[in-house]
Amino acid sequence: MELFDAHITVGNGLHFQLEPVELLRQMDLYKVSKAFISPPDRCMAVANEEGHHYILDLVRTFPERFTGYASINPWYGKSGLEILIRALEQGLRGIKLHPFLQGFTLFDSIVQPVLEIAKQYSAVVYIQTWSSINALPLQVAEIARQYPEVNFILGRMGKTDFAIDAVPALSQAFNLYAETTYNQPDYLKNLVQRFGAERVLFSSDSPLTFMEMEIAKFHDIDISDSEKELIAHGNLERLIS
Questions:
Q1: How many other C-beta atoms lie within 10 A of the C-beta of residue 138?
Q2: Domains, the chain, ranges and CATH?
Q3: For a tag on the chain, would you pick the N or C end, based on fewer CB atoms within 10 A?
Q4: Which parts of the chain sit beneath pLDDT 70?
């Protein structure tokens, strides 16, 4: 079964490192055909254009293996938006927002121009949620309701402290997608039964998790092969087509 990983961070981060050569080795080993890659934390927080050049170079060098996220800090305002537009016009297919790392809340006015660009360029938006109160699943759901033309990925599913809000969030916005990472097979089966396989994306969140483990959990979900095909690659291919 073809696997298209919806979120991997590549490069040298503050607390992790995943070089492209090692990522490709893991992808080959675990039969991941393609990955949606994000720049590391420094390039999300401050060095946005540097991060775009890095990801674009990888996408152009390995077009069959990589698709790329842009990541702009909304605090950069107009200059940041210009950098974001260039990145999308040059071939990146998504936008990653990390409210905690980038220092904003999703309801700040500086976020709206970024989402308008996402709408204009049909870019999928990955928003990282976790324990921080400025990046909660229900906040993402409200943003998704305000921008029904944009497809959003509920990054990390609110793990750990706000995981309980993931299902209510998905219930409120049809354009909000779950990812498999950090979730157990029974939980994922329940998501499929409740929202349909069309609303779930395979993701490993490497290198912050173990790719092999996340793939094994995915294969253990007790759903049909056709549903697994959608989660494994079909849904993400549709979102970025």
A1: 16
A2: 4-240 (3.20.20.140)
A3: C
A4: none
